[in-house]
Amino acid sequence: MAQQNIYDNDAFYENFKSLRSDEINFNDIIETPILSAMLPDMKGKKILDIGCGMGQHAMQYSNAGAASVLGIDISEKMLGYARDKNSADNITYRRLAFEDLNRLDERFDVITSSLAFDYSEDFGKLLRDIFALLNDGGYLVFSMSHPISTAYDGTYDRYTRTQDGVRLYANLHNYIIEGERHFKWVVDNYEVYHRKISTLINCIASAGFIIEECQESMVPEDIANEHPDKFGGVVHQPDFIFFKCRK
Ligand SMILES: C[S@@+](CC[C@H](N)C(=O)[O-])C[C@H]1O[C@@H](n2cnc3c(N)ncnc32)[C@H](O)[C@@H]1O
Q1: Quick one: which atom of ligand 1 is closest to the CA of 56?
Q2: Least confident among 11-20, 57-66, 84-93
Q3: For 31, which of 18, 40, 131, 147 is 20 to 30 Å away at the CA?
């Protein structure tokens, strides 16, 4: 079961917090610019941010003129940071797992999620629950790990390399087989769910959404060259996939 509360584990939380706060981090350099460019106008809108973490996105939507932002997350530690550092009058943070979205009795104009759906065991149900929470014409805009990057089991090097360690190819492992994957990321036994791209698209479509846009992450060449250890492999494989879906 990947409904882990790993973000409440002290060591994981501290490591994640330091990665997320690093000046050059995947979220701010890669994820957020792509997701932000896909968002509809947020002015005056009721927003739900699922897996809001430390609240950076909630604050961004508040600053963009949202009428209200509800950030939900299962981790008390992440919510504690969000309440402390990313508060505003129109932001509310609430502890709620996305498996329990049906407990919300309000509707939203825009639902967003950044890198939280990797932990969803039942992606089809999650999409149906989100569809039910949106007003007609509302948008779901989300990012998650790209299926190419989760087709990996952690038991071998992610890359085929030259003798000097330069990344030549990204390796795939059992792309076709879906389900839990464990590998080393911040902790030794990090868990996510791997799904095929077709499964993501079919779950979105069968929930009733129209897909307006899909993006795959890439890194500006100068940043990849400047930080080869962090971003050098990104030319071989996208780390994240993004969807903009309309109800
Ligand atoms: C990689 S972090 C991303 C946080 C934030 N969205 C950001 O972009 O910085 C993933 C977040 O998803 C949350 N999460 C994991 N499983 C969840 C679940 N079942 N329900 C709600 N939140 C969950 C974690 O607690 C964590 O805050």
Answers
A1: 9
A2: 11-20
A3: 131
